[in-house]
Specification:
Layout lengths: L4 H5 L7 H15 L7 H17 L2 H8 L20 H9 L3 H5 L13 E7 L1 H6 L1 E12 L15 E2 L8 E8 L2 E8 L8 E2 L12 E12 L8 E4 L15 E7 L6 E3 L2 E9 H6 L1 E6 L2 H7 L8 E6 L8 E4 L15 E8 L6 H13 L16 H9 L1
Parallel strand pairs: 1-9, 11-15
Antiparallel strand pairs: 2-7, 3-6, 4-5, 8-9, 10-11, 12-13, 14-15
Helix pairs in contact: 2-3, 2-5
């Protein structure tokens, strides 16, 4: 190479190592074969790489400055004795040594365990007012034989002789770019850096075993289907006896024969004969607390609440009992109990009942009613108009 190496990189003879590296990075980004594959650019890239190989090595640079041949007559890009490697190219493109980027050290044997999820079905009253349940869970626990280290009693892990405890091994390949150095997990120790010569027979060296245990979970008032209760540290124990993950208990609220839940409100439907709807009456409506009394959980709560049916109540009318719904999970107070009334029309009448109804119709001048026809569908503006009215 007859051209001055400093001119090839575009630096002065007194440039320091950082200036030389920056110049090489800039040129490598422009001239790399992946960016400019034409033959002339590739030749230029080889010259820049050879120049950087010499000027980045203090001994070779000193030898070159004294007029010597830094390549020792080997010549040719990638020739014998050349110290340039793929690491330098990675350094040029990513600003750090490829060896440093890949070197992570040995993998830890002790790691945190995974979280676990189980589903629990509860009654509506239990979800509304809270309950304490005992659960049987099947999870990984620390091995009692080896105390989690995976080695048989009386033995212990030893340093891997293949990677000398690093957990990684270097692999060197030659290409037209020079030496390509890569690192991969050590196959002998699977990247741990240590080997267990005598694994524990109980856990096969994993440090944990499966076990069924009983846990007590306290379900707070106000949970609904899909709500998850977190039990910290009650999940799967990690490999090597590592700390356990969390256990999540997901709620599923069973259907209730009387009430339907809607958020914190309860919905119920009461069917009345037309006479009771016309004349009015008072009903004793069961409360959700009545389920707790029936199960024996409590004894001193109201099991019914009076429901006043006003005379002339129409089918579909709703009555709201405030504070009779479900307690709020993340707040104070309770929702409402909304009772919808359905008026039942008799389908079978004896002669006397029919006679009385016809007499009532005559008194109310309803023997031949004209009826009122209403539109079954209204547009958006029609519904807005009715809302404002």
């Amino acid at each position: 190479m007859s051209q001055d190496l400093y001119d090839v990189l575009g630096v002065s003879r007194d440039a320091d190592a950082d200036a030389i590296k920056k110049a090489y990075r800039r040129l490598a980004r422009q001239l790399h074969p992946d960016v400019n594959p034409d033959p002339e650019t590739q030749e230029r890239f080889k010259e820049v790489s050879r120049a950087y190989e010499v000027l980045s090595d203090p001994e070779k640079r000193r030898h070159y400055d004294m007029g010597g041949d830094p390549f020792g007559g080997a010549g040719g890009f990638g020739g014998a004795g050349q110290g340039f490697s793929f690491t330098d190219i990675m350094d040029a493109f990513f600003g750090q040594s490829a060896g440093q980027a890949q070197g992570r050290g040995p993998r830890p044997r002790v790691r945190r365990g995974q979280d676990a999820l189980i589903r629990l079905e509860v009654e509506l009253a239990e979800a509304a007012f809270g309950v304490t349940r005992e659960l049987k869970v099947d999870t990984a626990v620390t091995c009692g034989t080896c105390a989690g280290d995976g080695a048989a009693p009386g033995s212990k892990p030893v340093t891997c002789e293949t990677c000398r405890g690093r957990g990684e091994v270097h692999q060197v390949q030659r290409s037209f770019l020079g030496e390509i150095r890569t690192m991969r997990p050590c196959a002998a120790c699977r990247g741990f850096g240590t080997i267990i010569p005598e694994p524990c027979r109980e856990c096969s060296g994993d440090g944990r075993v499966r076990s069924r245990r009983t846990l007590t979970v306290k379900i707070p008032p106000g949970v609904d289907t899909g709500t998850r209760v977190q039990l910290s540290g009650q999940g799967e124990v990690g490999p090597g006896g590592g700390p356990a993950g969390d256990l999540y208990v997901e709620m599923h609220v069973a259907d209730h024969p009387t009430f339907t839940r809607q958020g914190t409100d309860l919905l119920a439907t009461v069917t009345l004969p037309m006479t009771a709807a016309a004349l009015g009456t008072t009903l004793e409506l069961p409360t959700l607390e009545a389920d707790l009394v029936e199960s024996g959980a409590v004894t001193d709560v109201e099991t019914t609440v009076p429901l006043e049916i006003q005379p002339g109540t129409q089918s579909g009318a709703e009555t709201v009992l405030h504070g009779r719904g479900v307690p709020s999970l993340r707040g104070t107070g309770r929702g409402d109990l909304v009772v919808r009334v359905l008026v039942e029309t008799p389908t079978r009448l004896d002669a006397r009942q029919e006679e009385l109804l016809r007499e009532l119709a005559a008194l109310r001048e309803e023997t031949h009613p004209d009826g009122q026809v209403h539109a079954s569908h209204k547009g958006v503006f029609g519904r807005l108009r009715d809302a404002f009215k």
